[in-house]
Amino acid sequence: MSTTGSRIVAMGHHQPSRIVTNDELAELVETNDQWIRERVGVVTRHVADTETVADMATAAAGKALANSGLTAADIDLVVVATCTSVDRTPNVACRVAAGLGITAPGAYDINTACSGFSYALASVDHAIRAGSARNALVIGAEKLSEFTDWTDRSTCIIFGDGAGAAVVSAADEPGIGPVLWGSVPEKSDVVTIEGWRPYVQQEGQAVFRWATTALAPMAREACARAGVAPEELAAFVPHQANARIIDGLARRIGLSPDAVIAKDIVESGNTSAASIPLALSKLVERREVPVGAPVLLFGFGGGLTYAGQVVRCP
Amino acid sequence: MTRDEITAGLAEILEEVAGINTADVAEEKSFTDDLDVDSLSMVEVVVAAEEKFGVKIPDNEVQNLKTVGDAVSYIAAQS
To answer: Which residues contact A149 (CB under 8 A, 6 or more apart)?
Structure first.
């Protein structure tokens, strides 16, 4: 039984309790608070101690489920976007299902690094449209701290840990627009977590240039596919890579001056696949965007990969 | 385009991107040491210069552009 579309019903998020300030990082590497704020835009980040990717994913998903009014028995698909899960198997989705008492859901992980949530959301939307699921959990969860070289001042200041989750249900009126997704395989070496033991490495200038020049047309195309003009967007929730990338991208897309631009990077740092659902969950929690208003999600990162879609705000 | 015209064009870009006084821009000035242009602002300068002068400045060339004069020479050779 296929359906006409799906929509985000509710959001939830979880961050580890430990907050690391820029001043604390200045004790580890040669840096300072002002430099980090100006270059990257991060003021604090949350760092997990013993919590795993699956622990954070489960906590965020549990909150989203509670906010949705549905129960574990209603969920028939769990998809997790992550690039920092240490275990090869079981996957994070199965661990979330076990943790929440969801029996027999379809359960798989997706790795497209920082664009993962938009890929996962599209994948779930497609599954629901095809009749393979009715109610799904879509989660972005990352523990970047485990893959951070804490002696590398160019990267350790950027990243954080956390998880965000959405409950997505079949809907007569589609609330998740067509995805615009793609990749740039020839730029595979500019963001990496490679080899063993792997640490995040990136060519900052190359990433910045790509993100601020090549992505705006893609974001506008995602809007066009949804039949929404960029200036009609109520909010823009991009991957929280770097405050200056967010500003540059927002400027080139052509948003209304009234549009809300998510800046969770300030308090959470760059949490890769978790950054979009974390930021969206907080906007919803603070009711900064009206229910039903169009919101552009746009993820981009390692691969290089990118994906975005317009959703109706839950 | 003369070297002076290219320098003047770069000065306009530097003012717009990084708020640098056009009077401070000269060929011998280092982007990072003298003009305090950080690595990400340098990318914005390069992208703006590509549009303004109709040239291509690839990622791996950016690190060789230490001074305003280096950029002027590169652009002059391309255009």
So the answer is: A155, A156, A199, A200, A201
Is it true that domain A6-170 has CATH number 3.40.47.10? yes
Output the pLDDT for position A1: 58
Checking DSSP bridges between strand A191-193 and strand A200-202, what pairing results, if any? antiparallel
| Structure-token pair, residue B13 | 């870009």
Number of folded domains in chain B? 1
Residue-wise burial string across B10-44, b where 16 or more C-beta atoms lie within 10 A, e elsewhere: bbebbeebbebeeeebebebebeeebebeebbbbb
Q: Which CATH class is domain A180-312?
A: alpha beta
Helix or strand (DSSP H, E) at A223: helix A215-226
Distance to chain B for A144, nearest Cα, Å: 23
Using omega within 30 degrees of 0 as the cis cutoff, is the peptide bond preceding A129 cis?
no
Is A22 catalytic? The answer is: no
Which CATH number fits the domain that encloses residue B45? 1.10.1200.10
What are A236-262's pLDDT values in tens digits? 999 999 999 999 999 999 999 999 999
3-state secondary structure of B5: helix
Are the CB atoms for A293 and A313 separated by under 8 Å? yes
Interface probe for A, chosen from B43, B56, B62 (most Cβ of A below 10 Å), is B43
What size, in residues, is chain A?
314
CB of A149 closer than 8 Å to CB of A89: no
Distance from CA of A206 to the nearest CA of B (A): 6
Q: Give the global pTM.
A: 0.95
SS3 A92: helix
- Is residue B63 over pLDDT 80? yes
Res A2: pLDDT = 66
Which residues of B lie closer than 8 Å to A, measured between beta carbons?
38-40, 42-44, 46-47, 59, 62-63
pLDDT at A67: 98
Q: What's the rounded Cα separation, in Å, for the pair A132 and B56?
A: 48
For an interface test with A, give the residue of B17, B31, B40 to mutate (most A CBs within 10 A).
B40
